[in-house]
Amino acid sequence: MGLGPILLALALLARASSASCLLDPSDRYDPRAEIPSGPFKGRCLDTRELRSLRVVSRGEAEARGLAARPGLLYLANVRHADRFWLAAVDPGAVEAAIVQIEFFPAIVPAAHTQLRFRFAPGRQPVLVPQRGGAPKDRVRLRDLVYSVEAVPVVGGDPYDLVKGMEDHFGTAYRMVSLSDRYRRMVVTDHHRVIQLRLKLTPRERRELFVHAVRLGDRSGMKLMYHTLARNCTTELVRAIDQTVAYSPWRSAVKNATFFMCSIPTELPHTLRIRGLLADGAGSRMPDLDREMEGKR
Questions:
Q1: What mean pLDDT comes out for the span 170-179?
Q2: Is pTM, for the whole model, over 0.85?
Q3: Residue 49: burial class (beta carbons within 10 Å; 0-12, 13-18, 19+)
Q4: Extents of the domains making up the chain
Q5: N or C of the chain: less Cβ packing under 10 Å?
Q6: What is the pLDDT of residues 194-218, one digit of tens each?
Q7: Contact 23, 44 (CB under 8 A)
């Protein structure tokens, strides 16, 4: 048999495998994702809740009733109120970039880190339902959270640190509403979430959002998760380092302490080394539970 038929058979097999991972036929942005390697290679990732964000065209967004305006980014698979939405976002409207560190019990001190973007009043992201509903059923959100998380295969084991080093999970680069993350982390799991406001210029805040989105869109659901080599913190710091121009001294210190970038509980030190936190407690905000309770 020649090489041509073999390649055709492999292509058809890959297409069939991708189609079999369609979990929501009514959602055109279902990623149809399978885990790329490891002991579960080829099995479907459970993307019913955990999906990477996706950049879509202005035309796609306009067809769902979102404004078509220069400078906006249009995103699919934004998670809010337990469903997926299309969002129109103005990166120039980011007025604060806030690191959140969620501490959870494990065999060693452990945490999840993520990046909260707060938008200026009157310039908040606008969301419309990704499927179902009508374009007029729109919401505005003051905050979006960029969260890189491990994704199990359908029917697979829940996350733990050890399995995270054994190729058990894919990776999702998510964009989620603050209310959804608060409900999961604080209300359901009763975890403490500290918040640190990054010391960035308006240009850096805008570019950080753009770099995070581009990293998520480019990565899709194609990368394996690893507890140390590719995790919530490495990917958060990756987006930050693509954004900020450090002084030669800061760069030297940063490069000498590169190993800290993989440890979520060490993120405050990683940020301080980069000069991204205000002196003293200037960057510290109230813990998320206290902030949200104060708004009730």
A1: 98
A2: yes
A3: middle
A4: 26-294
A5: C
A6: 999 999 999 999 999 999 999 999 9
A7: yes
